[in-house]
Amino acid sequence: MKINVGSVVKAKAGRDCGGLFAVVAADGNSCFIADGKSRKLASPKRKNIKHLSPTDSMIDINGITDKQLRIKLRALSEAE
Fold it and tell me: How far apart are CA 23 and CA 35, in angstroms?
């Protein structure tokens, strides 16, 4: 499974199970995710890609703030 930077993913395991996150960085079998609230862009969570489910959505994370990220993820979760 290939997950790119900017992909919107849903957590399948852990305390953040069921939440939508944006991928901030990806390397090998893990990636760093943020949602702008519990996980800020400045300190993303490292997560194994086995515990993530990719969605069809993408977010441009260049120059985005935590508040803008929260708004975009909220809109995507309401669309589901």
Answer: 9
Give me the residue label for tokens 């849903």.
10
Answer yes or no: pTM beyond 0.85. Answer: yes
* CA 30 from centre of chain: 12
As beta bridge partners, residue 17 has none
Place of tokens 């390397």: 27
Q: For 12-29, how does the pLDDT look when each residue is reduced to its tens digit (9 = 90+)?
A: 998 999 999 999 999 889
pLDDT, averaged per 10 consecutive residues of the chain (80 residues), comes to: 88 92 92 94 94 92 94 89
Which two three-digit tokens encode residue 3? 């997950």
H helices of the chain, in order, are 66-79
